[in-house]
Amino acid sequence: MKAFLTTSLLLAALTAIFLLCGWMINGAQGMKGALFLAIVMNFGAWWFSDKLVLMQYGAKEVDEASAPNLYRIVRELAQAGKMPMPKVYIAEQAQPNAFATGRSPSNAAVCATRGLLTLLNNDEIKGVMAHELSHVRNHDTLTMTIAATIAGALGFLTHSLIWGAMNQQNNRGQNNHGLGLWGVLLTIVVAPLAAMLVQLAISRTREYEADHDGALLCGNPLSLASALKKLHHSTRQIPMKDAERNPATAHVFIASPLMGKSVLFATHPSMDERIRRLEALASEQKYHPKNNHDVMYTSLTSRQQENSQPSASSGPWSDPVRHDQNKSDHKLGPWG
Q1: Predicted TM-score (pTM) of this structure
Q2: Could you tell me where the DSSP H helices lie in 120-240?
């Protein structure tokens, strides 16, 4: 329910921004054009955003015959997590990275880049895929992929409406109280800011939660921590041109694919902090890698069942995990 409400709010925000920008440029006529475009974009975002992200990075679906090691890892993790088997993709990108996408666990896909499969060992790949499957299990993927489509659509809206406004200046009498060129200038400023806000609405705690749940699922927090260390170093050395051209999709990756991104507008939390939390998790006796995987999975399942209980103070932007933790008097761990 939380994921559905979040997605609905994002789609409503997209429609409102489209209408506002349309009015600022060309009044009532601009609003009509923006409304039509918003309907098309909303429909496309809901049904096709996952496919668009996969297409953008040239991802190709693989099976057990073409990628036996990766496919086996994903299958074993899906079985351990009692999840439907997602589709598995490989993107021919040199930068090591990975992402998950899809409207729901039954329509999910996980994708690893060729660089990741070359750089990481099996345990590290397992940690990364467990992280991505946790996004799927937590229903983060729908919100993340729609947010990417929204941000990209805002950029498209800016360019298309600017050209339309330029043409309308030859017939000022038909402008129904729009702001004309002033609207164009405002749109140039408002649309990118709105796109940034939509992306920042995807809380950074999603990454922390996916790290935590992924560590429980794979059974070894240190494997995921080791993978993140390698990814953090490599993503700063190897560019991903497709992501640089369309940074709206940067937040779907396990590590930011963008080089030189400021901390203020970062789509991911600090990698050092993520690694610190995983190492602290591994140091706790009940999460030690030598412990049985079933114990760790039971802990994950119990926590998710607790989170599914409704809370009077919860909402589409609230953190149910934190609400539950605040109710207890025991000392919080690294995930508090």
Answers
A1: 0.72
A2: 122-137, 140-168, 180-200, 205-218, 221-235
Distance (Å, whole) CA 207 – CA 47:
24
Kind of pairing, strands 59-62 and 109-113?
Answer: unpaired
Strand partners, 98: 112
- What are the residues whose beta carbons fall under 8 Å from the beta carbon of 260, sequence distance 6 or more? none
Interacting residues of 192 by C-beta distance below 8 A, sequence separation 6+:
154, 155, 158
Q: Any catalytic annotation for residue 207?
A: no
Catalytic residue among 132, 207, 273, 279: 132
14 in Cβ contact with 41 (< 8 Å):
yes
Q: What is the DSSP string of 216-262?
A: HHHT-HHHHHHHHHHHHHHHTTS--HHHHH-GGGGGGBSS---SS--
Task: Please name which of 234, 223, 232, 213 lies closest in space to residue 272, comparing C-alpha atoms.
Answer: 232
109-113, strands of its sheet edge to edge: 59-62, 87-91, 109-113, 98-101
Whole-Å CA distances, 301 to 32, 113, 306: 48, 29, 9
For 306, what's the count of Cα atoms within 13 Å in the CB-facing half-sphere?
15
Per-residue pLDDT of the chain (336 residues; tens, 9 = 90+): 565 676 677 667 767 776 777 777 667 777 777 777 777 776 777 788 788 889 999 999 999 999 999 999 999 999 999 999 999 999 999 999 999 998 889 999 999 999 999 999 999 999 999 999 999 998 888 777 666 666 666 666 666 655 655 555 555 544 444 555 666 666 667 666 766 666 666 666 689 989 999 999 999 999 999 999 999 999 999 999 999 888 878 888 999 998 866 555 677 888 999 999 999 999 984 545 444 454 455 555 555 555 444 444 344 334 444 444 444 444 445 554
Question: CB within 8 A of 74, min separation 6: which ones?
Answer: 85, 86, 88, 110, 129, 133
Are the C-beta atoms of 140 and 131 separated by less than 8 Å?
no
Dmax (CA) for the chain in angstroms is 76
| Closest-CA residue to 248 (of 49, 98, 46, 104) | 49
